[in-house]
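Note to self: user wants both folds in one dump. Writing first protein now.
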Amino acid sequence: MFKKVILYTNQLEDMKGFYEYQLGFRIVEEDDTSFTLSMGESQMVFQESERAAVYHFALNIPGNQFTLAKSWTSERVTLNRQEGMDEVFYANFDADAFYFQDPAGNVVEFIARRSVDRMGNFTVDSILNISEVSITTPYVEEVGELIEDMDIPVRGSKGIDVKALNFLGSGHAFILLVAPKRIWYFSKQKSETHPLSIELSDGRRINITKEGRFRQEKSANPILDKMEEINFSGVAYLAKKEPWAMAKGFADRANERPNAIDTRFGIASGSKIFTAVVICQLVAEGKISFEDQLSQLLPKTFPHFNVTIHQLLTHTSGIPDYFDEQVMDDFEDLWKQRPMYGMQTASDFIPLFKDQPIMFEPGEKFHYNNAGYIALGLIIENVTGKEFVDAVEERIFMPAKMQNSGYFRLDCLPGHTAFGYIEDEGDWRTNQYAIPVRGGADGGAYVTASDMANFWNCLMDETLLTENMLEKMLQVQATEKNRDYGYGLWIEKQGTGALNYHIMGYDPGVSFHSAFYPAEGSILTVLSNKSDGAYGLAKTIEELKIDKE
């Protein structure tokens, strides 16, 4: 029944620290005045307010994990006691429960439904959904009748009782309707009238004012509507003066582990920009030049490819591609003859294209080329004496404070990483056999949304490149069908300047879009562990939240 519940607090930072760090809940959306927690199938929002507020709410957990949950919670917070006991069995609900309080004084209940079992140890991912939310109002009868009019029944046969604790709902989800000054179970806190908002699973919303009056509204959130429309799974993050972020869907569908704001996602070709930055650094250091030819730098490997670094960077080289995105449809088909688990370094890709004929004369036109960036990765390895991924770690990830990013193997992904998913005749499977086992110079890095914001900021403030080299990277170097390209990034122009600089990435189980908007210095990143959706959502957010003037 509960999709999202909004509560208010005047202790926002303390509450955020308690739930995120002390209890380990995942934040799926936040800005300067609120944060949203994932609670299984539901979400709980804490919104900043000027006055203190106390509520009661309960979370459903599996019945067979009650003892584990109680032990897990008691290691992190002191449990409330009543008459010497720190747990209770509710026979009417066939459930066990225990209670604790958060920094704002909210009375939080974990209620274990004996009819529900889950395998494994208890973690925050064991939480099923929101079970109960309290509405405290001096207008109990009036509010109760209005809720009943929404086809939410009162439990029991006596109807609404203004002097009792009323349960409205069914199954494992109830609104607790009560008058002020009732003492909550397992605490000394009294019920208080405060505003709150309940969004139901069907989109209807119950708003309670600070006076305790009832207002019913239909949810209106165009960004969330877009996410629902495309069945989005991933994270959207807008870094600006008032930052905003939202996560949706599952990082691990089998275990129903939700995506969170700090989840790592693959970005496919979006990481070509890292290759371009390292090349520009080496040029600035005088170790190579943009006019150096591939056949001269790597004569044993590519003796016949007389193309320049500039042409490789701008997709104008014409060298044969191991996967031509303008001709081939399915990246997954590529690994049927050559197993993806053998593609671990840039050198592993060489046999796929080195003996193929040139597609067109170098510099003749723009033609998106993955092999060109593989060649750039080999140049980086030859010049630095380091494996490509180590060079990027040292030259980009470390100085840009991208602490959660890396080129991780698909069979050894670190924690808080989303699996990529491919829809196949109504079912979902991971992309483990659909892309190379490890990313490299042409794509395949894993990042978080905040790491991408760090990258753009450090690129634009000249931490990663000199002023002159940054200016060259951001200049239009090639054009295709009215789309402009610099070194490793796309340029969307507006008038005589740039509306944004952006990068994109698409693989089976991966879609990614990230952009820097110079007019206001904002950064928009959309990461998804599905094969599509990032671009459309990014355009919706851009339209609604970014000043283009």
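First done. Writing the second protein, which came from a different request thread.
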Amino acid sequence: MSFATRISAFRFRMAAVFALIVCGMGLASLATAAVPERRVALVIGNSAYTAVPPLANPMRDAKGVSAALKRLGFEVVEGYDLKMDDMTNVVRQFAQKLDGAKAGLVYYAGHGIAVGDENYLIPVDASLRSEADLDFRAVNVQLVLRQMQRDERVNIVILDACRDNPFAAQLAARSRAVTRGLTPIETQSASGILIAFATDPRATALDGERDGHSPFTDALLKHIETPEVSITTVMDRVRADVWEATGKKQKPWTNSSIIGEFKLNPTLKLASADPTDASAAAAKAINAAVPAPAMPAAPVFDRSQVDIKTWEAAERGNSAADYRAYLDAFPSGQFATFARNRLASLEAATPPANAASATAAATPGVTDEALKKEVGTAQTETAMKLDAKGRRELQSRLRAAGFQPGKLAANFGPSQRKAIQEWQKSRGIPETGFLTALQATGLREQSEPAYQRLLADEAKAAAEKKSKTADRGKTGTGKATRSVNDAGEEMYQRDLARERGVAYEGSSPATPRRGTTSTGYQGRVRTPGDTGSDTGGAAAFGSIIGGAIMGGILRGR
């Protein structure tokens, strides 16, 4: 073999080796990029409840979400129609798998309940007779959150658990702390958390058509696999779809402290290598080693900045409508508490002239369907801010509607609570004995004609009573005046008769008994039988007086 041939062979072998090296580097990069950071999910769907009617869609909803998460690369721990022990077991499995994961996600569909500031997920075998049962027969959401927050990672909790809940109606009559829907979960205490509810806190979500999905999960499945979209954008799109699909009756709620963007379906940017063209691969490797010129960063959508700008606009407008608009956009925003306080102040500063008419104007009609979703509690009644006058008005309206609240009182006692329960029963409302603002509006609308007649009758009765009292006062004064005048006249006539020395007959046709006048005056009163003796006495008395007078006159001379 000639020297030239050997050189050519050597060059060919070196080119082949270099190509293999570049190819290997490309494949290694491909493998590295193709393995994303570990992400773990817990998915639970409870439909077959035993103590209350079963739900149609939670199991189907959960299975759809589980399949989508698996396609997105999540390790999924899942369970369906779980009893209490089974639910705690899958939560424990989820907690174990979270070790070393960079993202954790929980999806739950089924019944949930809120008591005070705590939210509970209800297993299918739960039988809740008192508030204390929740600690032993339900799973506290905080238990799940604690497992997720043991390490620093992105944590997402999605709860489609705000359905019309018979457990809440059962417990509301025994506990004032039970409310419908779920209680807001704050995320300010820790970063990297997103909480999503199927509807606003303390509101009821729809379960959807049978053999389908709930409106919330249907929208979630539509958007959850969209590439290169952050989780906050996904939830914004879900909110918009649910709002439109339910005719603006259900609005999903989210609260997030995630810094930056977390994408459920990021596009994997894979390194490439062409094994058939070593020179092209080398060129690509060289180009990759040369840094590209820096480009200005694209503006990042900062929700907190939008929150601030929206609040500043509401402050400048300083109207109830502006503050409501802010709260609609940011129900748990940085300034939500201030917005609610200012809204309450503005509404209190301009009270309607007639509370009933104002409520009717704001709510053109209260349907039975809307009332049946209302569960009255001590909290809902306190939020109405009723004063003594308002409570008496509602008691009068109950009476006008045919119920018996007893004597009007400044506060609701046992008889008033019983009347409220009877009215709630007549309208198909959970019989808690406590009112909500919507229930008070329904009572006002129902009782308005009879209530106005009752007010008119009471006003008429009060006017008649006042008139009779005035007439009695006038009659009594006239009689007393005549009595005093008659007595004075009789005494004058008696004294005049005595001075004249004649008998006093009296003003009455009947002859008064001796020593007593017709008015009851005690003294000696002349009668025809006493003429002789009394006349002599009077004459003697006159002589004495006359002599005294004449003696004085003569001595004066």
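Dump finished. Worth passing along: Residues 28-35, 269-278, 353-363, 509-535 have pLDDT under 50 and may be disordered.
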